[in-house]
Specification:
By secondary structure, the chain is of the alpha+beta class. 22% of the residues lie in helices and 29% in strands. The protein is built from ten helices and 22 strands. The model has no long low-confidence stretch (mean pLDDT 90).
Length: 377
């Protein structure tokens, strides 16, 4: 930020994405491991990682209880002897706040989404290994995991701050619905208060009728949506469901919220991008034939009744996702490798004998036109 002469004006400069790097104030000691469940191929890497962290790095390792209940791990006597050195947690019952220095995900993009859901305030840095299906958000390969983890522990690693959406559902005539701004809503006053990394989806649920909902931005009615629903996504989520519905793909460093209709009953309803921090409200239209349904990163599905309000804005708690190379290279490689972005066969070039310059081609075209039309000048 630069201040003008005599403080008459202030110019905000855009932050260089390359300046976002992980630095530690103290040596990290505790790690949370999120493992893809019901996948036998992830079990050997999981055991190798846990064993190395506990026995070689002498770190405190947190594992979810349901992971240790998998049959392949229960039948492994050697690993069972190691479990006495692990810290066990249960989702929804144990608070991990201020207990974790950084997170390691083993699996696909879903493991990162799940890690985000466990931390509804600040999130520790996340190192994601690609052991799943698509792997758009998991840039690290597991083969040299020791070197990758050691580099993170040493610090000075590039990272991407992936913004999240704060989502609050307010019941009709509640204190929450009368609160002026979403950031002033007390969590106890809302029926739902959750942070999402990808998107909020509002759809018609089991109803056979059109989803008829009103869209407000900064408390102003923008439009009414008639179709299968609406996707409100972060830049990270713009390459997920929103892309399938026709949205633009937005780099995660762009401060924005993407609003995408799902199969709108209109030829002119295109996706739009609004500034991060804008408050978005979704309500079931008074003339709607049925209610709507909302889901948050594909979970916590709930019904939106007439008079209820779904309020959304950018959260102040992003997800620090560690980069393999840097913010730009990782993203574009994911676009090409996972989505085959702009992949097509190359146009064949002319051979040397037929290759001509643009000027020669134009002259040749003019001569042919002149021969064909006697009045050509």
């Amino acid at each position: 930020m630069k201040i003008g002469p005599l403080t008459m004006y202030i110019i905000s400069t855009i932050q260089d994405p390359g300046s976002q790097r992980l630095t530690w104030n103290k040596v990290p000691l505790s790690i949370l491991i999120i493992k893809k469940i019901f996948d036998a191929s992830v079990v050997p890497p999981f055991k190798d990682l846990v064993t190395w962290l506990v026995e070689c790095r002498q770190m405190v390792v947190f594992i979810e209880e349901k992971v240790l209940q998998e049959n392949l791990l229960q039948e492994d006597t050697e690993f069972q002897n190691l479990t006495t050195k692990l810290s066990i947690f249960r989702e929804g019952k144990d608070d991990l706040t201020d207990k974790i220095d950084f997170i390691i995900c083993l699996g696909g993009d879903g493991t990162l989404l799940y890690a985000s859901s466990l931390f509804q305030q600040s999130v520790p840095p996340v190192l994601s290994f690609h052991l799943g299906s698509l792997g758009f958000l998991t840039p690290f390969q597991f083969e040299n995991f020791q070197d990758q983890v050691n580099q993170v522990i040493e610090g000075n690693v590039p990272l991407t701050l992936r913004s999240r959406l704060k989502c609050v559902t307010c019941k009709k005539d509640s204190v929450c619905s009368r609160t002026l701004h979403i950031n002033n809503i007390d969590k106890a006053d809302a029926s739902t208060h959750i942070l999402v990394l990808n998107e909020v989806v509002v759809d018609r649920g089991p109803s056979p009728y059109l989803c008829n909902i009103d869209l407000y931005i900064e408390r102003k009615l923008v439009t009414s949506v008639q179709g299968d629903g609406l996707i409100i996504s972060t830049p990270t989520g713009s390459t997920a469901y929103a892309t399938a519905a026709g949205a633009s793909m937005v780099h995660p460093n762009v401060p924005a919220i993407v609003i995408t209709p799902i199969c709108p009953h209109s030829l002119s309803f295109r996706p739009v991008v609004v500034p991060a921090g804008a408050e978005i409200m979704v309500m079931v239209s008074p003339e709607a034939r049925h209610t709507a349904w909302a889901s948050f990163d594909g979970r916590n599905r709930q019904e939106i009744q007439h008079g209820d309000t779904l309020r959304i804005t950018t959260s102040v708690y992003p997800v620090p996702s560690l980069c393999y190379q840097d913010q730009m290279s990782d993203w574009f490689e994911s676009l090409a490798g996972c989505l085959n972005w702009n992949v097509r066969k190359s146009q064949k070039q002319f051979t040397d004998s037929t290759r001509t310059s643009s000027l020669t081609s134009l002259e040749s075209l003019s001569e042919r036109e002149s021969d064909r039309d006697p009045e050509y000048v």
